[in-house]
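User: Please predict the structure of the protein below. I'd like the answer in structure-token form so I can feed it into my own downstream comparison script.

Assistant: Understood. Taking the following sequence of 916 residues as input:
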Amino acid sequence: MSVMEQLMEKTQLSRRNFLQMAGALSATATLYGCSGSGNGGSGSQAAVIATPDNLVFDTSMKAVIGSHPYNCGGRCLFKLQVKNGRLLKVTGANSDIPRATSAAADEAIDLPQVRPCIRGYGQIKRTYQPDRLKYPMKQTKTRGDLSGFVRISWTEALDTIAAQYTTTIARKAVLGYIPGMNGVFNYFGVSVSSSGGTSWDNLNQMRQGAIGQSTNGNSLPDLLNSKFILNIGASTAVSLTHNNHVNWYFTKAREKGIPIVTMDPLCTDTATTQSTGYAAYNIPAYISPRTATDAAILAAMANVIYRKNLHDVAFLQTYCFGFFPGDTVVSQSTYKDPITGVATLGQTFTTPTGMSFVEYLDSLQAQNGGYNGVLAWASQISGVSATIIENLGIAYGTTKPATIYGGHGACRTNGAYHQAWMLLALAAMTGNANKVGGGTGFISTGSDSPVPVTLGATKDPVTTATTTGSINTSAWGASKTLLLGTDNRTYAQLRADTLALNKVDLGAFKAVRDDVNGNDGRLRVEMIAITGNEVNQRKGCISKWLLALKKVRFIYGMDNFMTPSMAQCDIILPQDTHHERDEFQSKPMVYYFNNKSIEPMYECKYAADINAEILNRLGIKYGIYGAQGSKTPRQLMAEQWAGATVNATLLAINPTAKLPDFETFSAQGVVQFPIPAASAPLGLTGIAAGKFPTDTGRINFFSPFYFNRDKALGAAYLKADGGYYRSTFPPKAMFAPPAEGFDPVTGAWLGFAVGNKIKNGQKVTYTLRHNHGHHRRRAHSVYDNVAIIKENFPGVVTMNTVDAAARGINDGDVVYVYNDWGCNKVKSIVSKRVPVGLVHIADGEWYRASLSEKYEAWYDMDGSGVFVRTMVPVDVGGAPNNLQPDREVGCREPYVTYDNAYHGTFLEVSKTHPDL
């Protein structure tokens, strides 16, 4: 119990009254002094002391309620103190003052406060950073050369961009589509899109085939109904701290005595502060598997559950498909094939030989010598003891209900498409998938944790123009799209997909490229619009992506700062920050009113206004406020709020819930309704057996859609177990070995990867694995340039003491981290918080090319399969995805998002330049 809590308890003072009394005592001390006149403090003789100027409350200060839009799992609520049009101070808007008259009410479990963290507290420093983009600029030298940018007017910038749009749109007449990426191209026809979400791609791929893309897990308050929480890789104390208030609910679950076990390669703050272990089953609080091997542990746990008859046969037979050999079902689903549009209602589906989950478990036992052999197999791959793996299986199979918390931790690694599927498989085979206190193996941010408000319509349309679809290409294969005209699909697959989805025929592939006339099976990208720091976030290997960008005729971008992405633009447009405009901001369970607190600085403009001015130059009337109309953003928001309604799920929990009027909402800044654990929304509530939004209408352990998709693409072949599938992307729940570190024939763990890089006549062997987690100081790459935060949380590579000693590296040394893909020069931290064989570089570090040091990377630039020496700059910024492969590791579906692989790539670390 804290000192304040003890004082409050002893004096029976509420927290609010305590603060009021403290304030009164402080005021008294200010007026009369702390000890009177020096003669005992007699009231009759005490001199009245004038109040010092620095203690006078500044009545000219204005408090403005705001939030921030950056996806760190935050968007917390802030009180901004403004004077003379300048931000001076930021505090937590609903946590700097007690919410209620008692400590218990202030800490109400069902209405958690949205408290800020260091990232949010740094937003004033970010707003006034000296490197803010202040006016439009154009590049006069080569892309990436910061010395080449010169100031231009908004008129010149927008006229130039509009002219480039006109040139690019005209190419549609020849190519059949517009060879432009992102931006406003879709108002003029089918263009190209670089698709892929940083955190959720693997999960979305799994859901599409296994449970339906619109389905979710149970909401976070439901964690408090669980009797066991197995956390797979979620760093709740650093990321997602207030996205659904993850850290809050983990804290309350721990306080409630619910056993929590964290499985993560890194010994995170979550592992040390939020994990308890499960003493009844002799399971420690923290388990450290090798990166990207979690699914092997999950597969062995599933085998334990099945062999000990802990699986829920009734649930499997009623709700699932593909668990038992020869499963057959007549679909009752309204699902339609997303490629062909054919409905599956009434179709009969049968699990092919070798494709059921039981047959998979049987094959594991046959290949590894029985029950104990499967445990030994998983232990050898993961580095986790067989005893702990067995105990995990028994604990999860026996404890009812139990929750596996997956999501981000389970989705950003090699093989995570199948890792996410294995989470669902365990949840389904134990009957936890649709139970209170259970869930599907992941907690996402959709209907399970609903946004409280649905906005109404505006009276006037923003535009009468319509948009078209895009030819979706993988963000993780983006450099291939620019260099080769396809991503990770064959040209035949790309042509078939584009014809089916976009009604555009790219033609048959021709060996001789024809950029003038097209029709050679390739996609072209001749112009790109960049919004945000995409280079740092999702382009595969940065150095190769930057080489590929040289093939693009024109690039423009808009942002707040000269990020690595803006450095690659021909024209840069300065964008305002969220402090310089009114807007709504939504997050599950909370809805924010972000009030404009200062006027737009310099020549910065709102992104919507910028797009409107571009479209107006191209003949499309867009926008109903600002330069395009008479309405302000706030007037537009008032119209939307007038027709706003409470989310139906939350209204069912809070039948009397009402939305405040517009001005009240503006003043309080947040709409949030209580969600008691007893009423927590469940992801699969209301979905009847056979009615899941999958092809079979069931929860799929085996996906007929992915199976048939492979065959239709001509990529299927017969496997030894009788199943047809692409070797890397089987359409079923299982452990799929990551692309690196495993024997491709036996699947055995090797612990190293041999690259294509040649040194001293030999291919280089890499023996350390890369883990790429979130950083306390950044929301992905946002806030990376805020000096005061960066000084306290510097960018480093963290490695184990054993690995460091073997390489002669001491704590604080500047080292080179490298592999085939690139080389980073960064300071080291030597710590036991990462296991032997692993290094960690946090997500979002800004790429900065060295002006003096080069590195021999090895790339396949022409699609021949031959990797050749390619000189690239050493990255002195330390961006982790400069070391990421330009490769996908999951299924290839252009109508949904794509896979990524931030964890598990092999690399090396040395004190000297690796090419010396």
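That's the full token string. Confidence is low (pLDDT under 50) at residues 1-49, 714-727.
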